Amino acid sequence: MNKQSDFLVTHPDQLLAFLVHNLPCEGRKRLKNLLAAGRVLVDSQAVRQFDHPLQTGQRITVVPRQAAIQRQGLPTLPVVHEDEFLIVVNKPSGLLTVATDKEKRRTAYAMLSNYVKEENPDNKIFVVHRLDRETSGLLLFAKSEEVKRAIQDSWLDVISERLYVAVLEGKLKEEAGTVRSYLKETASMRVYASENPHQGKEAVTHFKRLALSRAYSLVELRLETGRKHQIRVHMQGLGHPVAGDKKYDATTNPLKRLALHARVLAFHHPIDGRLHHYETPIPPAFATMFSAALLQL
Which of 108, 118, 175, 188 is the most buried (most CB within 10 A)? Predict the structure, then answer.
């Protein structure tokens, strides 16, 4: 929970019971922590007693924690959604999702691990999926091994939409289309596409052209599958690599980063089944390459 929540009491109740009913994904433990931290207001006054009696007509306000994680020397990591089970963040370009042999601390995982331990030293964080270091956008983490597995084991049922936006080299002729191939990673960690179903895992990417400039195309990309480097390899196959993607044959780098952003993430919550939909704007640096009007998309 990262937006202020306001509720009107419609019948007499106790404060914690009221919160549990109105914020089912927060969980009793987390709600008690919010109470202890003075983040629950009754008629604008902080109340910390879980059994505080409520009367009809009173207004309850729940104030979230900080909306972004900040660590010295690291980029800001905005928190888009948080509850007892999940965290969704908007990862900036240049930040690893998880540690590598060369980098252990400058990662979204490390920042989130420290963040949840500030509330309780026993709290942990679990990686659900990843974004490449230079790819920005929405990234989902779980707060328990059970929730992580519940999502990963039913990925196609839980994840209802993953939408990206990218700047591609050259003018894409097709207004829309679908790329379908089989992807295989080599020992050099480069991914290749094949038409042979026995030579990789199936990958399907739907694309739609949003805008053109003299040398670039702005496209929207919807993933039907989520393979490693799927978008990057599929766009390379179209002859229009993602700008800044030297690994997959891009020859220009106008934004000094990989021009790929995970813009939309929608999923059915693994606990209550409700659909959660999160969307970020097209990065201004992408949009201004084409038209300022695209900043409103």
Answer: 108
Q: What is the helix (H) or strand (E) element at residue 68, kind and residue range? A: strand 68-69
Judge contact between 39 and 62, C-beta under 8 A: yes
Q: Estimate the crossing angle of helix 28-36 against helix 15-22, to 10 degrees.
A: 130
Architecture of the structural domain at 162-261: 2-Layer Sandwich (3.30)
Q: DSSP letters along 249-262, please? A: T----TTSS--EEE
How far apart CA 166 and CA 172 sit, in angstroms, is 12
**Whether domain 5-62 has CATH 3.50.80.10:** no
pLDDT number for residue 104: 64
For 218-237, the DSSP string reads EEEEEESS--TTHHHHHHHH
The predicted model scores a pTM of 0.79
In tens, the pLDDT along 43-59 reads 988 898 989 999 999 99
Residues designated catalytic = 132
Q: Are 245 and 237 in contact (CB under 8 A)?
A: no
Token pair, residue 31, equals 């709600």
User: What's 68-153's CATH class?
Assistant: alpha beta
Question: In the chain, what are the domain boundaries?
Answer: 5-62, 68-153, 162-261
Position 296 scores a pLDDT of 47
Q: Kindly state the tokens that stand for 239.
A: 């002859």
Task: Check if the beta carbon of residue 233 is closer than 8 Å to that of residue 207.
Answer: no
- Give one DSSP letter per residue of 142-176, joined into a string: ESSHHHHHHHHHTHHHHEEEEEEEEEEES----SE
CA dihedral for 27, 30, 34, 35, sign (positive or negative): positive
User: pLDDT tens digits for 209-265?
Assistant: 999 998 999 999 999 998 999 999 999 999 999 999 999 999 999 999 999 999 999
Task: Write down the residue that tokens 């049922």 correspond to.
Answer: 157
